[in-house]
Amino acid sequence: MLGIYNVLRASRCFCLSVETLCRPLPFVKFGNHCHLGILSTMREIKVKGSSSMHSNVSDEESHNLQSEMVNDNQSCSSLKVPEIEKKYVHHVYDAIAPHFSSTRFAKWPKVATFLSSLPPRSLVLDAGCGNGKYLGLNPDCFFIGCDISHPLIKICADREHEVLVADAVNLPYRTGFGDAGISIAVLHHLSTENRRKKAIEELVRVVKKGGLVLITVWAVEQEDRSLLNKWTPLNQKYVEEWIGPGSPRARSPSLPGSPSFKLESIPEAEEKILGERVKDSKEASTGMLRETSSQSEEDQLASNVVTNIDNQQEYFVPWHLPYHRAEVSGASASALDSGLAKKDDKKGAVVYNRYYHVFSEGELERLVAGINNAVIVDRFFDKSNWCIILEKTS
After folding, report:
1. pLDDT given for residue 85 in this prediction
2. Which pTM value belongs to this model?
């Protein structure tokens, strides 16, 4: 067992060798087993009926490729997975995988349009494929998916997709392997700017020159603003764990003069009451409200709260796993014992928190700005997601 599901079962008109797929990895974890030094040689890609994807690697090219991979692996080793991602992304999706998969079947039109527009015989790499809902969407293309969650990959394998367990910030494919890449709703689960940028660089690396990469992320600017009331702003405890370069900026969860005030939308009926409380407190009102002829103190406070909501980008987003689904495995019992999840008897569910860094307008573009071999060919806002399409230039 190599930690790869069905990669050799290349259907349609493709004939792929395992050696062509991946660059060396320190290990791949598959279930309870770790396999060292797998997939260490890369020589040939053969595709029936297509000479353009056939390449022989010379000794010099092989040496350069190995040097590049050593540098890549050194770079990735410095980007170790933060504890918050292990607990509130990896462990959570492992626990909720079957239920999560049952809710993920609708294809986003923009993603479907992108995949349908690719030339026939394109090799598409899906980084963070989840339950594989986009794998095989274009029947004229060949898809390979990867995800950090073993249970989600098993779901994909059971559907006979070509998939493997892998980390989006250290993709196990050789440089220039695919014709296109996608990362759908993945980057917002990475907790530092360095890791988010590295994931983009990896997708660009593994596609050919001229290849396209589609990336989508959750946006701060949610169309349904009421959702923010259901999310928990990341508290100072977790922010403090990331102090240093490439870490989220420390944002105060309180308005000036009100240490316990939460960043939440305020219903209209409560605005006046809250405004009067603040007005009665000289200390709280000092430096927080400005008197203007066109805006009352109450309106100004509400405006400040909305502004702070927009500035907040680190959240815990709940996932409610119904009791009858949670009993399927022991993962939820373990999560409850460890405090990773909690019970909600009113809703009859085990509640998990998932970590999200929601993106502000222009943030994706800023991450790409430092990548010198890719250009943005399209950007758009769709279903409360920021999206970009990149083209690899060299």
Report:
1. 95
2. 0.69
